[in-house]
Structure formats: structure tokens, C-alpha cells
Amino acid sequence: MSISSSLGSPSLPSGDRASRGTGRATTAGLTAERPKPPLKKVLPEIGRLVYPRRWLLASGFGLMIINRASGLVLPASTRYLIDDVMDKRQIGLLPIIVGAVVIATILQGITSFTLTQLLSKAGQRLIAELRTQVQSHIGRLPVSFYDSNRTGTLVARIMTDVEGVRNIIGTGVIDFFGGVLTAIFAFCYLISLSVKMTLLTFVILMIFGLILQRAFKVIRPIFRERSKINAEVTGRLTESLGGVRVVKGYHAEESEASVFAAGAQRLLNNVISSLTAQSFMALASTAVLGFVGALVMWLGAHQVVAGHLTKGGYVTYVMFLAFMIAPIVQLVSIGTQLTEAIAGIDRTSEILSEREEDSEPGRAVALPVLRGDVVFDDVTFEYEPGKPVLHGISFTSRPGTSTALVGSSGSGKSTIISLLCAFHTATGGHVLVDEVDLATVKLSSYRNQLGVVLQETFLFDGSIRENILFSRPEATEVQLMEACRIARVDEFAERFPEGYETIVGERGVKLSGGQRQRLSIARAILADPRILILDEATSSLDSESEAMIQTGLNYLMQGRTTFVIAHRLSTIRRADQILVIEQGHIVEQGTHSTLLAEQGRYFDLYTRQHGLETNLFLAPGEGGAISAETVTSKA
């Protein structure tokens, strides 16, 4: 059980998020792209991917050599077919030549099929492994990371950025090196036929190679920018679809459509830029082919007439020249794929380099079963350097007691809870749990004893049973039913035709607010946490739903150290202590009755909320004063 088990979502609600900025300990965020690293910095990442599959690639290279060598048999045999069989009438050589071509063709077909099966499937497995690795790594990053990066952007990172890497392990890289190897074989053979024609052709191809090199330098950042734009557009689209009720409620369909259209246009502009570069390379390759062809025709015809080259030698030369030029021209396509793959690896390695929560130095203490003794000792905190949010927060919550946090929005309540959840580390002072500083604790050993019930319950698009078992998948049926009975989930779940197998819809849209909240309480009861956080758990409910849920909450709070954030102050009158937070300070601390008697900030909040104005309390000699007890009785 992790904190997400009870919470369902890795971040707290935005009660005082306005004061939080981007987060002091946050990473810079993926939206603020780092400068494009040189290729040599990406090569180690490619090596890391390739090394575990080195024998697979070695087998692929072996098959590739056989495949390319077999492909050269046909053009090589043409010379003997024309010069010896046709011109010299040596018909006895024909079966040998044809047999060699047939055997070579069969070998080429078998190796091509095997390469595709072996490497293409390996490339797809690599994509699946990388997606799993990136998702797992993102799940272990601190909350500050999520504060800086949109959900849709992260989804695009997981699903899209790794797609191109199949060309590193798949047939793309094999085709690349196979083309190079074929070009080398062909070049050596062409030299033996005609040094002059081959060297002139080689000079032209070298110039073409330099053009390709410069073109790829232009294309690589375009592909990287495309991944970034795609992530941003996907992120906004995900948010828009997730908030469709808000969009429709404010009749903002056209506004959202224009925002998406602008993003789609940016993506189109990027694609057009890459297509322009690719078209230029295609133009250059076509020009090279035509120029080299014309040159070979001119020089070859003169050499045949002069007797320096036979007709069969000329035909063979032309065919081998095609084998040398074709792989180089093919580099336009393969090189683009590999460039895209490198851009994806670059962005994937960027996210994998983010430090995980438990990898922070000093987090080595594994907590046993907690008593639930919580101490804030002169705690200060700032999300951004020089902008403190909390100032000298000190209080103690004993095991089994409840502590309520009240105050205006942005006062620091959710920040205190965030520190208690170890989403952030105190800038100054100490947060102690059972006398152990949270900054030294292995988070996995702590958060599986932490439970949270939020104002806005997060539910997955699964069954009622699956959503409750999310906090404790190994729970028995008896434990599940007991949690549902206490939280009064059974009262509505058993009325559905499919009972506990009823699908709740995305974020529980098929359930009412009270039903979702009861389900959330059942999930927390099943988790059996030692420290419980109730963040506005009933503020959005009607009186009837709140009355139903309060019973479950009271049961859940028994014997646990509980922290309650509440704006509805009537729900916290029984708290063992109430902390009044204003501008990052504890301005008042005590029980409900003692704070009312002090007639300070809490008194103002409470009386204003219950429709009583402070000017009704007359000063002595003006008709007497209404006491705090009277306020309590009126409430």
C-alpha cells in the first residue's frame, strides 16, 4: 500500500496551491526544454539499450552479411552470362550460373524473413520495455515533478517518444549497416573493373554524403521539437477531454477548438519543415543518380569501344554501381528514421535522469509499524528560494488524537499536510514521526502507513470492487465487505444489478458525490493507515450525505493520528486540538471551546460562518455580552 493507494492521485487539492508557486524542490520541468545535447552524449544511452541485446544484433549482422552477399550473386553472374555463355557460346556454364542465382535468391529470401521476424519483434519488445520503465520511473518521482509537468505531456513521453527506438534494435539499423557493407563490397568490385569511373563516381558520392550530413543536422532538432509540440498538444487535449463538463458549462467548445487548432498548426508547420528538408535530400539523391548514370554511360561506352571493358563487364559494372548507390540513397530514409530514434532516446533519457524520491541522499531509515506520534519542530518551508511559505511551525499530535487545520485559502494548511506526506522536505526545522526525522525515512516504509480521504475523490474507470481494493489488493472478501459495511457502501452497491462489479465510469462519473466519498472512505478503511488525513472530506456534500459519511469517518479516525483540513468548522468541534493558520504562522492553538473563549481569529471565523456578527456581542455595561458557550449552543 502506497500513499497513492489511499489517495488515488499523487497530488493534494489546490487549497493553498496559489501560494506554492512551482515548488522549491521541483525539477525544472519537461516543458522547459534543455538545450539539445550533442550526438556523443546520446551514444551512451544507445549503448545501454543495445548491450543487453548484443548477441541478437550480432546474429542479425551475420544474417545481414549472408543476405547482402547473396544479393550480389545475380549482378556478379551477369558478366559471365554475357561474356562466356552468350559471346563465347560456353553453354555448359549456364546451369552453374542459374543454379548459383537460384540458391542465392533462396538464401536471400530466408535471411530477409528471419531478420524481419527476429529484429522487428525485438524492436517492439524494446518499445514495451521502455514504456514500462519510463512509466515506472515517473511514478517514483517527487510530487514537485508533477507540479511542473502536465499529465498529457507525460503520457506523450511514455507512449510516443519511445516509438522511434525500434529502429535502433529493429531492421532500421541493420539496413543502415547492411547498406554501408553492400556499398563497400560493390566499391571494391567496381575498382577491379574500372578505376577511373569508380573514383570519379566516388568523388560525386562523397559530395552527396556531405550534403546529407548537413541535412541531418538540420532535421534532428526538428524531430526533437516535434516530440515537444506533440506532447504539449496531447497534454492540452487530455485536459480538455477530462474537463469536458467545465468546457460545456462555460460554452467554451470553440475556445478549446481554437487552442487545439493552434497546436495542430504548430505541429503541421514542424512536419512541413521536416518534409522540406527530406524533399531537398530526395532532390539531391535524384540528381546524383542522374549525373552518375550519365557519367558512367559516357565513360563506359568509350572504354568498351576502346576494348578496355567487355560488354558483360560494362553491364556488371552498371548493376554493381546500382548496388553501391542505392544504399547511399536509402540513407535518406533510414537516416531520417535513425535521427527520429535518436531524438526520442534523447528525450527519454532526459526523463529517466530525473531523481527518484527514495534516491535522495540520507533516506535510509525503514520505519516499523507506526505509533503515530507526529511533531513539527520549528518548521519553515519555501517553494522558491527567498519566498517562505511556512514560518516556525511547531506542534505535537499524539497517537490516536485528531488535529484540525483551519484558516483562509493560501494560509499554508495544504503545505503542512504536504510536508507530513513527505511530498516535500522542510527547508528548516524537523518533521518527526515516532521521533524519526521524515527527511531520513525511506518513503515506501512510511507512505504505506498513511491514508488520505480527499474532498474530490479520485476513482478509476473500473468496478466498485477494484476501486476499493486499490488500497490493499491482497485483502480478503471478508475484509472488503466489512470496509464497505462501515463506510455504508453496501447500501448503494448492492442495489445495482451488477453489485460490486458495477463500473463507476471515468473518475466515478456514474456515482453521486456522496457515493464516491463513501467509496473513498471504504478504501481508506481497508488500507488501515496509522496516520490519516481528511482534506475537506465532507464539505461538498449535502447534510444527508454528510450524516451518512460521518459515521464511517468516526470509525476510521478511531485509534489513528488524524489531521483534518476543514472550512466547515462545525465538523471539527471534537478535535483534540485546532491550529489556526494564517500567512504561514500558527496564530492560535487549542480546543474548540478554548479558542472560542479567547474570541480571536478562530472566534471570528466560526461566528461569521454561523451567521453571527461580532457587533452583536455587547461590551460590559451595554446590556452584557454573549458568551462563547452561547455561540457553541447556537451552533
Task: Write a structural description.
59% of the residues lie in helices and 10% in strands. It has 635 residues and is α/β, with parallel strands linked by helices. The protein is built from 23 helices and 10 strands. The chain folds into 4 domains: 323 residues, ABC transporter type 1, transmembrane domain (ABC transporter transmembrane region fold, Up-down Bundle); 135 residues, Rossmann fold; 72 residues, 3-Layer(aba) Sandwich (Rossmann fold), CATH 3.40.50; 45 residues, no CATH class. It is elongated. It has a 6-stranded mixed beta sheet with strand order 6-7-8-3-9-10, sandwiched between helices. The chain has a 4-stranded antiparallel beta sheet with strand order 2-1-4-5. The N terminus and C terminus are likely disordered.
Feature tags:
single chain, 635 residues, alpha/beta, ABC transporter transmembrane region fold, Rossmann fold, six-stranded mixed beta sheet, four-stranded antiparallel beta sheet, 10 strands, 10% strand, elongated, disordered N terminus
CATH superfamily membership of the largest domain = ABC transporter type 1, transmembrane domain
Task: Indicate the radius of gyration in whole angstroms.
Answer: 36 Å
Question: Mind describing the biggest β-sheet?
Answer: 6 strands, mixed
User: What is the mean pLDDT?
Assistant: 76
Helical coverage, percent range: 55-70%
SS field, number of helical segments: 23
